[in-house]
Amino acid sequence: MAGKGHQNDHVDEIQACEEVNASQLEKSQASSNSSQNGVERDWTEEEEREIVKKADRRVFPMLCIVMGLSLLDRTNISSAYIAGLAVDLRLDIGARYSIALLIFFLPYALFELPSQVVLKKVGARFWLGFLITAWGACVLGMGFIHDWKSLTVLRAFLGLFEGGLLPGGIYIIGSWYRQFETASRVSWFFSLSLLASGFGPILAYAFSLIRVGDGQYTRGWRWIFIVEGAVTVAAGLAAPFFLIEFPEKVKFLTERQKHIAVHRVSLEKNGEASKPLTFMQSLRLLKDWHILFFSLQYFVAVSSVSSLGSFMAIILRQGMHFSYAKAQLLSSPPYVFAIIMSITFAWVSDKIKMRWPILIFQSLVALIGFFIIMYAKLPGVRYFGIFLACFGSQANIPGTLAYANNQTAKVQKRGVVAAAMISMGAAGGVTGSTIFRSQDAPAYLPGIWATIGMQFAYCVITLSLSMWFRRQNRLADEGKKAVLEGVEGFRYAP
């Protein structure tokens, strides 16, 4: 009996030790989860969801409006062209129209990175508000010009001031949302702003019908610029009251909510992600070779979108022989289709937690669309090709930005990555503005072939990068690679 009692005591001791070990293991796992990626998680899921809801309500409305105005103001030259601008300013001589298009992108590219540095130091509301007002004044001024040189100068200033908007918007979104929350939100941001661009030709047609007096202001193209420029100036003056700041600067969150908002997306310790970078620090970050390939992806996406935006109305008018009114009105439905499909596939990408299959699929859709535009005979079939090309090209702009954002561990670096990509995108804009040459009208075969070739390149780059990222993740999971992107626990999102 005594032996049995001693045995029972020993069993009790073992059970007690097992309970202690289990308790310690649970605490260790909880500690590991709470400090994943170096960030101490001291908040609940409910608190996090509440902050995301507040961010959704405050981040997007004004950003979408001003981004829509940006796209509208840079592409309305196509509508003005067929509304009389080409005749009055003799843009049919030589390469005048192409020069006026491409000059926009040179200062646009150069101003990206400096604007990001100023944005972080000055604050989003006032800096972006200034940029919006300034480029609105440039568009307004285009309604009063009398020669193509003045148009070219104003387009250059338009590019300078618009240069800071898109990377600034992506930076703001990246500072509020986590890795697999970004694709759908960047897509919403970009796609909703496309509503303005999509309905731009219809608005331009309505504005071109305005007539004032008996002189030069009976020319409808002037009123396209005057009305749209005035609206943008008004939006710029209102922007400081409606645009959102970075999480650590907003007033609608409590101090605890600010702490959660900053650290839920940060993979760095001690809140370093919120410290502004100097210009030289930003330049040093550009040494990362990933950024070159992200930028090449974005170059292809932007060149396709730019060529469509600048020449769609002209292709409909000259290539498919629609009337002026029909060419303007038919320019809008492809954008609406692109918006619906872009948002849908961005949601799918976040849901399946994969980027590359969606990006490559969209690129292939664009490629098929350009083939149809090039080889189909019936105008209706070629118009269907525009739908596909518009969707595939437009969807890969926010998709590529989200893809690059997800491969960048440090929040500090995301603004630099966005600025670098969009600077390269400016080169894509130059390409898209020049490959559709006036001497190739009405079929524009060289420009379409060049775009098809770039879409093939996009597929190859995206697939190669994604397979490399998957291999790096596997090596890190197997313990063969200690740290990715210099951050403990980080994994790429191919």
Shape designation: globular
Gyration radius over CA: 26 Å
CATH architectural label: Up-down Bundle
How many helices in DSSP terms? 20
Please give the number of β-strands: 0
| Distance separating the two termini | 65 Å
Query: What's the CATH superfamily, by name?
Result: MFS general substrate transporter like domains
Quickly give the structural class. Answer: mainly alpha
Q: How many domain regions?
A: 1
Q: SSE order in H/E notation?
A: HHHHHHHHHHHHHHHHHHHH
- What would the average pLDDT be, to the nearest integer? 80
The main β sheet shows up as:
none
Q: Could you name the CATH class? A: Mainly Alpha
Q: The CATH topology, please? A: Growth Hormone, Chain: A
Provide the helix percentage: over 70%
Strand content: under 5%
Low-confidence segments, given as residue ranges, are: 1-39, 267-274
Pfam family, one: MFS_1
Subcellular location: Membrane
Region (Disordered): 22-46
GO cellular component, one term: membrane
Overview features:
about 500 residues; mainly alpha; Growth Hormone, Chain: A; 20 helices; about 0% strand; disordered N terminus; MFS; MFS_trans_sf; transmembrane helix
Structural overview:
- The protein is mainly alpha-helical and 494 residues long.
- The chain has a single domain, classed as Growth Hormone, Chain: A.
- Helices cover 76% and strands 0% of the residues.
- It is built from 20 helices and no strands.
- α2 packs across α12, α8 packs antiparallel against α19 and α14 runs antiparallel to α18.
- The longest helix has 44 residues.
- The protein is globular and about 70 Å long.
- The protein starts with a helix and ends in a 17-residue tail after the last helix.
- The N terminus is likely disordered.
